[in-house]
Amino acid sequence: MSLSIKATRFCKHMVVSLTLSTICVAVNAASDDPLKLGLVSFYSGGASGPVGIPSRNGADVIIKAINEGTLPGSYSNSGKGAGGRPVAPVYSDEAVDSAARVTEYRNLVQRQGVDAVIGYASSGSCLAITPVAEELKTLTLLYYCGSTRIFEEGARKYVFRTMASQDVENIAAARYITSLNPKLKSISGMNQNYAWGQDSWRDFKESLDQIKPAVSVKTKQFPKIFAGQYGAELTALARSGADVVHSSFWGGDMEALILQGAPRGVFDDQTLLLTTGGTAFYSLADQIPEGTVIGARGQGDMFAPESELNTWFRNAYKKAYGENPTFPAYYMAQSVLALKAAADKAAKAKGGAPAMDEVRAAMKGIEYASPAGTIKMARANGHQAITGVGYGTFTLVDGKPSLKNVRRYSAECVNPPAGTSSSDWIKSGFLGAQCKQ
Amino acid sequence: MTLLLAILIDGLIYASWLFIVAAGLTLVYGVMRILNMAHGSFYAIGAYAAASAVGWYFTLGLPAWGAFAILLLAAISAGVVAGLVVERGILRILHGRDEVIMVLVTYGILLIFEDLIKLIWGIQAYYAYQPYGMLGRSKIGGLTFVNYDLILIVVAALIAGALWFGLNRTRKGKLLRAVIHDRESAELVGINVKRLFITTFAIGAGLGALAGGLAAPAIAVNPGLGIEVIVLAFAVVVTGGLGSIEGALVGAILIGLARAAAVNLLPEIELFVIYGVMTCVLIFRPHGLFALPTARRI
Question: What is the ipTM of this complex?
Answer without folding.
Answer: 0.91
